[in-house]
Automatic annotation (TrEMBL), chain A:
This protein's name: ABC transporter permease
Annotated source species: Biformimicrobium ophioploci
Alphabetic keyword roster: Cell membrane, Membrane, Transmembrane, Transmembrane helix
Residues that span the membrane, as ranges: 256-283, 303-330, 350-371
Pfam families on file: FtsX (PF02687), MacB_PCD (PF12704)
Annotated membrane topology: Multi-pass membrane protein
Alphabetized InterPro entries for the sequence: ABC-4/HrtB_transporter, ABC3_permease_C, MacB_PCD
PANTHER family referenced in this protein's UniProt entry, alphabetically: ABC TRANSPORTER PERMEASE, ABC TRANSPORTER, MEMBRANE PROTEIN
Residue stretches making up the ABC3 transporter permease C-terminal domain: 263-377
Domain spans labelled MacB-like periplasmic core: 20-228
Domain of life: Bacteria
Location in the cell: Cell membrane
Automatic annotation (TrEMBL), chain B:
UniProt entry tagged with the keyword ATP-binding: yes
Superkingdom, taxonomy of origin: Bacteria
Lineage: Bacteria, Pseudomonadati, Pseudomonadota, Gammaproteobacteria, Cellvibrionales
Spans through the membrane: none
Residue span(s) of domain ABC transporter: 7-231
One Pfam assignment: ABC_tran
Protein name: ABC transporter ATP-binding protein
Assigned keywords, A-Z: ATP-binding, Nucleotide-binding, Transport
Keyword presence, ATP-binding: yes
Molecular function (Gene Ontology), one example: ATP binding
SMART domains, per the entry: AAA
UniProt record similarity statement: Belongs to the ABC transporter superfamily.
UniProtKB/TrEMBL annotation, chain C:
ABC3 transporter permease C-terminal domain boundaries: 266-386
Record localization: Cell membrane
Membrane topology: Multi-pass membrane protein
InterPro entries assigned to the protein according to its UniProt record, in alphabetical order: ABC-4/HrtB_transporter, ABC3_permease_C, MacB_PCD
Organism the protein comes from: Biformimicrobium ophioploci
Descriptive protein name: ABC transporter permease
Annotated MacB-like periplasmic core domain residues: 27-235
Membrane-spanning intervals of the chain: 23-46, 259-284, 305-334, 359-380
One Pfam entry name: FtsX
Keywords for this protein: Cell membrane, Membrane, Transmembrane, Transmembrane helix
Length: 385, 232, 395
């Protein structure tokens, strides 16, 4: 027998209570893990976006187009390094419900400005050469079972084809992967030139312009220069870092997200308080036994450690099980959710944070009773008995 | 050897405050207990006999005076030293046995050995010896809840002697037992005293129990009223 | 029987009087129940708010036409020719010779949200008097209607409350265009209050839309007319349009918001399980602490039913108190709270949490269920405490 055995026996003396306590902690951390991962996925678009890239959009709103002539003008702005542009295509595959995030872009500059898109050199060449080539992300390629060489039609819910209908034919010329697991690989990119020549509006406009600067320190200056250049024109621009742009977009989901997460975290902490209270009271019931141990000659610090270790163990037991279940849940949901929430993973940061909360819970709930047990006055403890 | 003094209490006083009142339990108490004694302390409730026992066991501290154990002062030891001293020298037996309900008999007996440097094998040997001595070797795996009061008290005795202390302190050891069982327990204490040389101090209100002791002290209103009523 | 009842009431009264002595335990139980109820009510109030905003918007007597496959107003385009053809469709009502058709435009502007001071998509709808007349419950709350042919706009009450700078009389600049807000309108709290409205012809010229529009709304006899209209569209190759009633169009749009409410509901149920475990624990401990007390009563001749009822009543009372507390908290925190999120057409939908009495009643039922579940098993245990426990030492 060791102290650990004693702790274990103390813990398991009332299995029902242990189960209920662990279950409450389990639920708390299950929710914490799952909801934080979910929140992380929602925020990952912002986290993943580059701080050193700028986005130029129409000042009215990013859904309004910019003249294509702006691209050349921006290329000549001092401090600008690489420039590319793209147009929202509003694509879907077979059924309007199967949306495919599709852009018409200038291929070469697109890959220059977005180097985090990893394409094998051969496929890259393929795509640059083929006017009808489509570069697709790994996630959608897997979703629809597309392989390099496949010929597939995509529809647009915005544009019409010159030959009638809204269907465009593409050759899958490459599949890109992300540098990072959380990266969104659900988009498809094709040649702007092909789009321009085949859509019925024959527009000379682009959706937005992406660019890198020679030095991130120049960002603010460059942004200002661009916006000043087009001030008072028929299409004024609004230039911001990609991160700021994405953040603004995510924020449009609005306080709803904030409210939901706020409520969940409030509940998380309340459960912890409740559980802590029960655990602390459970130790009080054992005053007599602790007094006996002390009488036998167990010293105060040893008893302190034992009581503290017990609450730590209970929290870790329930908490790790909850976190583990959240992990399995997330892993299981990952494939199914990949279409909606690509960045859904339980990151080590979330796990570390959760374990931190567990330790804090164990410490806080254990500390006071452990301290009381340590300071227990034997004479009064027995007098009570 | 038998005449050597184990305990020497000099001018012990003990006061409690309850609300605004100060209650004096002992004004100035002197007591000597020799090694190998079997002392019974009797007295009506409120006479201070449990307080005295607590002070002997280092569970409670006197308000004044000195307690010498084996020639060394123990009333002024810090809590850690006191705990170590208790572990090394004293075995406790309580009225309500105070076994750990979630540990079986053998584990309960083993508890004090966790405070020693003995290894697992040695500990198991000691436990077996102690349980055999109290006649419960076959109940080693039983939980306290599965045993009668007498059996539980025997487990408690085994726990008190397992680390081979010089002294055993008993607080109403038969208070919760029927007469036959009480006699068994008292006989066992007597054997421990006579054959194993343990010094025993027992608080009791049962005159029959006191008969097993070599020396009976009557405590009333904080003073010994009738000293050394020797019974052979 | 009378004596049994009086026994029970005596025990219940005794348990309740002794609650303050078990303060922390009682408080834990109350809080557990309060949190579950508050969370449940928050999500129910949110769902109720969505419903009122989106599903209340659509009429069964209005058909909405969009370019086929476009799925939302923002992606759709229709031509002047199509607008005229729709006017001749069967089932579309006419006043005199004029078909009740509203051709509308839908442009997205950047507005600044008051709450976060960030830019958010704000829809500007271009329409005419016929279109305005199709919105149920439309009323000008402040100022006046825009004058056709001018850069004047009226904004919904939701826009005025959630976005900066939309008070009557203020001038707003979007790109090169300057607009004057001349009025604030209400449509009974539904989604149209999240929009700004201006003359369709003015928007066509300011945003280079030529003679094209984005959606067509038409008054129809009843929702049954939709099928006939669909046949009419199918036969004319010039009409590559989707049509549905406005009611079902908005119901579809509201779906993703409803998912969020479902998600919330799911979370509150899971959370309730955790809180229930905590509450059960509390009640078991409460019974364990009162073992001596209960056994003593039994020794005095009280029945085990009274021990059972006493414990159950204690749990129910604490849970109900928690329920009330939770409902109150939800009411103070959430009722009427204005929230906004991204709707189906890529624009902000403003809605408010609605905590009605029937929702509060649902919350209280939840609290009582928690009380019942967390009281039942401990009460059973209390009723099984043997009388001898009274004589056992409690040391």
């Amino acid at each position: 027998m060791t102290d650990l055995y004693l702790i274990y026996k103390n813990m398991t003396r009332k299995p029902l209570r242990l189960f209920l306590t662990c279950f409450a902690i389990f639920i708390a951390f299950l929710l914490y893990g799952a909801v934080t991962a979910l929140k992380g996925a929602l925020d990952s678009g912002v986290e993943m976006s580059a701080d050193d890239r700028l986005v130029v959009v129409n000042r009215i709103n990013f859904t309004n187009p910019l003249p294509i002539s702006y691209v050349q003008k921006i290329r000549s702005v001092e401090g600008v390094e690489k420039v590319t542009f793209q147009n929202w295509f509003g694509g879907y595959y077979q059924d309007p419900k199967q949306q495919v995030v599709t852009f018409a872009a200038e291929p070469e500059s697109y890959l220059d400005v977005y180097p985090e898109l990893l394409v094998e050199p051969e496929q890259r060449q393929n795509w640059l050469r083929d006017r009808q080539g489509l570069l697709v992300g790994k996630a959608i390629a897997e979703q629809f079972g597309w392989k390099v060489g496949d010929k597939i039609p995509l529809n647009s819910n915005i544009f019409s084809h010159k030959d009638g209908g809204q269907t465009w034919d593409f050759n899958i010329s490459g599949i890109y992967t992300g540098e990072d697991e959380q990266m969104d690989t659900r988009s498809a990119v094709f040649h702007y030139q092909y789009f321009r020549e085949t859509n019925s509006w024959n527009t000379d406009s682009v959706g937005w312009i992406g660019l890198t600067t020679k030095d991130p320190a120049l960002n603010e200056q460059v942004a200002k220069r661009i916006d000043e250049m087009f001030a008072n024109s028929s299409a004024e621009t609004d230039t911001s870092t990609e991160k700021a742009f994405n953040k603004a977009f995510i924020e449009q989901i609005g306080n709803i997200g904030l409210i939901i997460f706020g409520v969940v975290f409030m509940a998380f902490f309340t459960i912890l308080v409740l559980v802590g209270n029960t655990m602390a009271l459970a130790v009080r019931e054992r005053t007599g036994e602790i007094a006996v141990l002390k009488t036998l000659g167990f010293n105060a610090s040893r008893i302190f450690r034992m009581v503290l270790a017990e609450s730590m163990l209970v929290t870790l037991l329930g908490g790790l099980a909850g976190l583990g279940t959240a992990y399995l849940l997330i892993e299981g949901a990952k494939a199914a959710m990949a279409r909606f929430l690509p960045g859904l993973v339980m990151t080590p940061e979330i796990a570390v944070q959760a374990v931190g909360y567990m330790l804090a819970l164990g410490l806080i709930t254990g500390l006071l009773p452990a301290f009381k047990a340590m300071r227990l006055n034997l004479a009064t403890a027995f007098a009570r008995g | 050897m038998a005449s050597e003094t184990l305990y020497d209490l000099k001018a012990i006083s003990k006061k409690f405050t309850r609300g605004k009142e100060t209650i004096t339990i002992f004004e100035s108490l002197d007591l000597q207990i020799k090694k190998g004694d079997f002392v019974a302390i009797m007295g009506p409730s409120g006479s201070g006999k449990t307080t005295l026992l607590n002070m002997l066991g280092g569970v409670d501290q006197p308000s004044g005076g000195e307690i010498l154990f084996d020639g060394k002062r123990v009333d002024n030891l810090g809590e850690g030293d006191l705990a170590r001293w208790r572990a090394n020298n004293i075995g406790f037996i309580f009225q309500f046995y105070n076994l750990m309900p979630m540990l079986n008999a053998a584990r309960n007996v083993e508890l004090p050995l966790l405070l020693t440097k003995l290894n697992k094998k040695q500990r198991n040997q000691f436990v077996e010896t102690a349980l055999t001595l109290v006649g419960l070797a076959d109940r080693a795996k039983h939980m306290p809840g599965e045993m009668s009061g007498g059996q539980q008290q025997r487990v408690a005795i085994a726990r008190a002697i397992v680390s081979d202390p010089k002294l055993i302190l008993c607080d109403e050891p038969t208070g919760d037992l029927d007469r036959t069982t009480a006699d068994e327990i008292l006989e066992m204490l007597q054997i421990l005293n006579r054959d194993h040389g343990k010094t025993i101090v027992m608080v009791t209100h049962d005159p029959r129990a006191a008969k097993y002791a070599g020396r009976t002290l009557h405590l009333d209103k904080g003073a010994f009223v009738e000293r050394e009523a020797e019974i052979v | 029987m009378g004596s049994l009842l009086s026994q029970i009431s005596a025990v219940v009264a005794m348990n309740i009087r002794s609650l303050p002595k078990r303060l922390w335990m009682s408080l834990a139980m109350v809080i557990a129940s309060a949190v579950v109820v508050a969370i449940l009510l928050a999500f129910l109030a949110m769902a109720r708010g969505f419903e009122a905003t989106l599903e209340g918007a659509g009429s069964d007597n209005v058909a909405i036409f969009t370019r086929s496959g476009s799925a939302s107003e923002i992606n759709s385009t229709v031509t002047r020719e199509q607008v005229n053809l729709v006017g001749d469709a069967p089932g579309v009502l006419k006043e005199g010779n004029t078909p009740q058709v509203s051709a509308e435009l839908y442009v997205i502007l950047d507005g600044i949200k008051k709450s976060s001071q960030t830019e958010a998509n704000l829809p500007l709808r271009g329409l005419d008097v016929t279109g305005v007349g199709m919105r149920k419950g439309f009323e000008i709350q402040q100022g006046r209607m825009f004058t056709p042919g001018t850069n004047e706009m009226v904004v919904g009450a939701g826009v005025a409350s959630q976005f900066e700078g939309f008070s009557v009389g203020s001038e707003l600049r979007f790109g090169k265009n300057v607009w004057t807000v001349v009025g604030i309108f209400g449509t009974g709290g539904n989604v149209f209050e999240s929009e700004a409205w201006a003359d369709a012809k003015v928007i066509q010229s300011l945003y280079n839309r030529g003679s094209s529009y984005q959606t067509i709304r038409a008054r129809i006899e009843s929702s049954a007319s939709i099928d006939a209209i669909r046949d009419y569209i199918a036969q004319d190759p010039r009409l590559n349009l989707d049509v549905e009633t406005e009611a079902s169009f908005f119901a579809e749009q509201g779906k993703q918001l409803r998912y969020m409410a479902f998600f919330g509901l799911f979370i509150s149920v899971v959370m309730a399980l955790g809180a229930l475990a905590g509450a059960l624990n509390t009640m078991y401990t409460s019974v364990a602490e009162r073992t001596g007390e209960i056994a003593t009563l039994r020794a005095l001749g009280f029945s085990n039913l009274s021990a059972f009822a006493g414990t159950l009543a204690e749990a129910m009372l604490l849970a109900a108190a928690g329920g009330l507390l939770g409902a109150l908290a939800a009411f103070l925190l959430f009722d009427g709270m204005s929230a906004s999120t991204l709707g189906g057409s890529f624009t902000q939908v403003v809605f408010s949490f609605e905590l009605s009495t029937d929702l509060v009643a649902r919350g209280m039922v939840m609290a009582l269920v928690i009380g019942l579940l967390s009281g039942l098993f401990p009460a059973w245990r209390a009723s099984r405490i043997p009388v001898v426990a009274a004589f056992r030492a409690n040391g």
